[in-house]
Amino acid sequence: MANLYEKYVWEVPVRVTHWINVICIALLSITGLLIGNPKLFTLSTSDYLMGWIRFVHFVAAYTFTVSVVSRLYWSLIGNRYASWREFVPFLTPEGRRGMLDTLRYYTFVSRKAPHVVGHNSLAGTAYFVVFLLYLTMIVTGFTLYSERAPLGVTHKLFGWVMVLFTNQGLRLTHHMTMWFLVAFAIHHVYSAWLMDVKEKGGVMSSIFSGYKAVRKEG
Amino acid sequence: MGDSTRETSTGAVERIFNVSQLLEEKGVSRRDFMKFCTTLSAALALPAGFAPRIAQALDEVKRPTLVWLEFQDCAGDTEALLRAANPTVGELILDILSVDYHETVMAAAGFQAEEALAKVVREQKGKYIAIVEGSIPMKDGGVYCCVAGRSALDIAREVCGNALATVAVGTCASYGGLPAARPNPTGAVGVSQAVPGAKVVNLPGCPLNADNLTATVVHYLVFNKLPAADALGRPLFAYGKRIHDNCERRAHFDAGQYVESWGDPAHAKGHCLYKMGCKGPETYHNCPTQKFNEKTSWPVASGHGCCGCSQPQFWDTMTPIYHRLPNVPGFGIESSADKIGMGIAAGTALAFGAHGLVSAFRKGDSAEGAKEDR
Ligand code: HEM
Ligand code: HEM
Ligand code: SF4
């Protein structure tokens, strides 16, 4: 384990958007569940409990949207580990091999843990799916939000969504996709821990610090 | 009656009449008439100052002919118009303006009735107003609904196609409604879909609110044009606002006070029906302000959630009526999104927990840090 040095992998925008997303998703999931099935104990009609819960949902929703869009923009101009190419390894033969190797490691078939500086190709693919889930939440969320003002700009922008979904289908999709994100989060934190232990590259701390331990050539 | 006739240049007979005079003959005072005009300007979301203009316009109006067609319907919209506790001024106005043909209420029958309709279409082409109640079946050449041996589609094409304007009353005439519910065996559609060329105003609702019909007709008489409509062809004065935003239970929604089951204390206190499946948050109609039966009540006021009846295909898209969310398709009756979601989350946690245990005791599978890539 010689020749290790610290390599700057995750740039500031990658880390900042990651943690903003984590906080927003936590807030959105908790407030969303309460919006979907309010279990509230208020005695007075003068309270504004549901009002505040929805307010938090919408503020977090806007923050989340700005953060996701910023990360997508950064995937065009950031370093190679932030690039959009990291998310579509399945487009290259090399990437597909990487995915298979990682899968073999995860299913205990192989003992070779992945050795990559950025995302391993299986993780990259998973993030691709997660970004699709993010976009699903944003599109269905803003469409629901636009119901408030049928002549407003948001309604015009997202009117096409109502062609794809029925009203109830839209709500169900918004609700169900949350659970897919929750499942991903469980898997994701576990994998980060696993790779931290096995790769010994400091993945876990890398999303805070930006640095990973990387071996010098030769 | 205050009716007089005059021959126009085209030879058609046009009846000139004076609404307020007619109303007086029917025992409605000028004061009641002015009150009606004020209420109407409110329904049309016009400033109160418009009432005299409405009164004046109604005084000078030329009598347009109305024909009322019924297709695949339950006559509920006709009922809504006829069954008010007392005959209202609005009803009388419609009564006076109307009605050369109306299957449910006309005295004439058979050939005589059909001739009345044919005469209107022939002699007043482009000048009469058609009101349609009920959906139009398109499947199998339209055989599923025939009147006097002609298919609804055929009649609609002729009558609505030659009308000055068509008012589709109720959700069936507007969007197909209940007959169009999946699997829509008759291929039912609304008027604007069946007769694409016709100028149609949709007044959906199950039934429609008769006040909105009066307001639409009066809007036409006063301004000589149809009211501004939304993307679904519904007049904005009646369908421009969301039920949820005008609901008298809204304060309970914002506070977080909900009915949890029928007849519970919250229900008795009039709390919000959101958890009982109320579709007010996604339905556009003026029920909370206009109400029904002379502003007596409306569904949410009477303790039942809104079921979204003025939205297209509400029977398919707003159900289940008594739950907020539908079940996840492909799973059993009782599997809500949350149960399945928690299952997925728990499954993931279990799978990776087990994976973690195995990995923790697994030796010799570590890497030595990633290699610099070029
Ligand atoms: C990861 C992100 C998000 C999660 C986990 C989430 C979760 C949820 C959940 C579970 C509900 C309840 C659905 C129901 O049962 O009807 C909900 C409702 C809603 N969400 Fe989200 N949401 C997210 C993002 C967004 C975004 C980006 C918007 C955009 C404005 C948004 C807007 C809404 C609206 C408008 C509602 C309905 C609120 C109401 O009826 O008052 N959500 N959300
Ligand atoms: C305590 C919680 C979390 C930790 C410690 C953590 C850690 C990490 C680490 C180490 C990476 C980079 C590693 C790699 O690419 O293999 C990463 C990336 C990522 N994480 Fe997390 N994560 C957490 C929570 C979440 C949650 C809740 C979500 C979303 C549901 C999430 C979504 C993502 C995504 C989408 C990426 C790719 C980021 C990018 O390239 O922009 N993370 N996370
Ligand atoms: S009863 Fe229905 S329309 Fe009224 S506030 Fe509650 S959810 Fe909204």
Write the CATH homologous superfamily of the largest domain in chain B. Answer: NADH:ubiquinone oxidoreductase-like, 20kDa subunit
The residue-averaged pLDDT of chain A reads 91
Largest β-sheet summary of chain A: 2 strands, antiparallel
Q: Helical segment tally of chain A? A: 8
Order of helices and strands of chain B: EEHHHEHHEHEEEEHEHEHEHHHHHHHHE
CATH classification class of chain A: Mainly Alpha
CATH architecture classification name of chain A:
Up-down Bundle
Number of domains of chain B: 2
Note the run of SSEs of chain A as H and E: EHHHHHHHHE
Helical coverage of chain A, percent range: 55-70%
Explain how this protein is built.
The complex is a heterodimer of chains A (218) and B (374). Chain A has 218 residues and is mainly α. Chain A has a single domain, classed as Transmembrane di-heme cytochromes, Chain C (Fumarate Reductase Cytochrome B subunit), CATH 1.20.950.20. In chain A, 66% of the residues lie in helices and 5% in strands. Chain A contains eight helices and two strands. Chain A has helices at 12-36, 49-77, 93-106, 121-146, 153-158, 161-164, 167-199, 203-209; strands spanning 4-8, 211-215. In chain A, strands 1-2 form a two-stranded antiparallel ribbon. With 374 residues, chain B is of the alpha/beta class. Chain B folds into two domains: 4-239, Rossmann fold, CATH 3.40.50; 243-317, Cytochrome-c3 hydrogenase, C-terminal domain (Cytochrome-c3 Hydrogenase, Chain A, domain 2). Helix content of chain B is 39%, strand content 11%. Chain B has 17 helices and twelve strands. In chain B, the strands form four sheets. In chain B, strands 4-3-5-9-11 form a five-stranded parallel sheet. Chain B has a two-stranded antiparallel ribbon with strand order 1-2. In chain B, a hairpin with a 5-residue loop joins strand 1 and strand 2 (13-17). Chain B is elongated, with a radius of gyration of 27 Å. The N and C termini of chain B lie far apart (98 Å). The model of chain B is unreliable at 8-14 (pLDDT under 50). At the A-B interface, helix 2, helix 7 and strand 2 of A face helix 13, helix 17 and strand 12 of B. Bound molecules: protoporphyrin IX containing FE (2 copies) and iron/sulfur cluster.
